[in-house]
Each structure stands twice: as C-alpha cells, then as structure tokens.
Amino acid sequence: MILTLHVENTLISIGGYKEGRLGFAVRMKTDVGLTEDQYAAAMAQLIAPHGLTGGKGEGGIVSSVVPELTERLRSALSRFCTGKVYVVSPGLKTGLNIRSQNPAMFGSDIVCGCAAAVKRYPSPCVVADIGTAVSFSALDENGSLIGKALFPGPEIALQALSDKAALLPRVGLGEPGELIAAGTTDAMRSGLVYGYASMIDGMFRRFRARLGGSPTLVATGALAGLLVPHCEEDIQLDEHLVLDGLYQIYCKNAPPVRD
Fold first, then answer.
1. Per the annotation, does 9 bind a ligand?
2. Is this prediction's pTM over 0.85?
3. Fewer CB within 10 A of the terminal residue: the chain, N end or C end?
4. Is 240 annotated as a binding residue?
5. Rounded distance, CA 223 to CA 181, Å?
6. Residue 89: which residues within 8 A CB-CB, separation 6 or more?
7. Within 10 A of 249 (CB to CB), how many other CB atoms are there?
8. Taking the chain (259 residues) in consecutive chunks of 10 residues, what is each chunk's mean pLDDT?
9. Domains along the chain with CATH numbers
C-alpha cells in the first residue's frame, strides 16, 4: 500500500492506495505544536483499522503548505513505510506543465490537484480547491497550468465576522436553512454558504470567459462538499483530487509499485 499525506493549514488528509485505487481516506487536525512522535501516534490510530501498522506501507508521499510541519510529518509517515517517503517539491516529476513566469506561486496542493485533473478531465479545466483558502487554478486547452486566483476561505471569513462585529456570536459552518433567515445564527450560515456558492459560480463564469470554450469545472477540498450542492454551475465534485494527484506523482518518481 502507498500512503499519501496532504497537509493543509487546518486539516491533514491521509490516503492509502492499493492496486491503484484509494482504499481509505481519513483526516486529522493540523497542529504545529505536535511532535513527530505525537503525529505518528495519531496516524497509527487512524490507519490501524485499515490494516496498516508500522512498516506495512511500501512507500509514501507528502504535500504540505505548512513548511514547519513538512519534515516532521514526512518522518512520522516514514514509520509506516518500508520504502522512501517523497515530498512534493521542485525537482520531483509531476507530469504537469506549468506555463508561468513564476512557477513558485503554485503550492504543492495546487500542483497535485491539477496533475490529477489533467489526467481525469478534459481541458481546458478550472479547479477550485475550497478549504482554509479558496484557490481557482486554470488549465488551458493543452492542460498547462497558467495561473490562479486566491482568497480567504469560509472559515476565515466566519471567524473574522465574529471577531470584528461585537454583537455577532461564534458560529460553526453547517448546512444553511432558508436563504432569508429569521435568526442571527441562521443568517450567518446562510450568508456564508449561499454567498460563497454564488462567488464560486461567479468566478467559474469569469474563468470560462477568459479561457474560452466550455472548460470543465472541478471542485475539491474539505469544504467543497458543503458548498458545491448550493452552486448553480455544473461542477464536478472530486473530494480526493489532491490525494489522487499525490499517488500519481509518487508513481512517476518511485520504482515500480508492487502494492
């Protein structure tokens, strides 16, 4: 089995691939205060039910947008692998053509998601990754990554709303009720969910106009499942796109997989 680790600012996703298929996907919270040992213990609890203990994985790969955790988590993941654990970074083969004057502007999560999207969907394509931040990445008609738009995610917006407005309570994200809500909590959730869904629709339309034709619209990320059902555009919801991209990149760089 090959283990993939997607490290975001809020959540860490772990995927296990066997014979080219995702066998399991689990999540835990990101905490920069945890040690390597603590992360290894947390991983063990999550993956043990899926038949994995120390040294049972053939290899692994990590994508991280939290630099101070990258090596800590790579080392923790390596405890469950007999082979090498890669980190997505410059020099690793991705199969993705980045056509930009500043390739470094694309985080490893965007690279992984777009690498998977190029293989899975027709180009041109627009990939929205909805989590702590929301990014829209554009793949042209040749499948080349040409640029992105980036802004704060729903949880940041909700926290800012409570922090800056003294009379508003702290509210967790959740399914909205009526668009025109009768209470403050419901109104905040309505604004966040329907507002972000409308923004996603609007950004996809603008990207479509810029790219021309009928680009494939794809959404992934921890919060995509909450927002996409409330969008009006025809959007492919692909929850594990980044994990799939990680596995794909692992296979391009590692010896032949025997999982």
1. yes
2. yes
3. C
4. no
5. 22
6. 108
7. 25
8. 95 94 95 97 92 76 97 96 94 92 89 97 97 95 96 91 84 88 90 95 97 96 96 97 98 76
9. 2-87 (3.30.420.40), 103-244 (3.30.420.40)
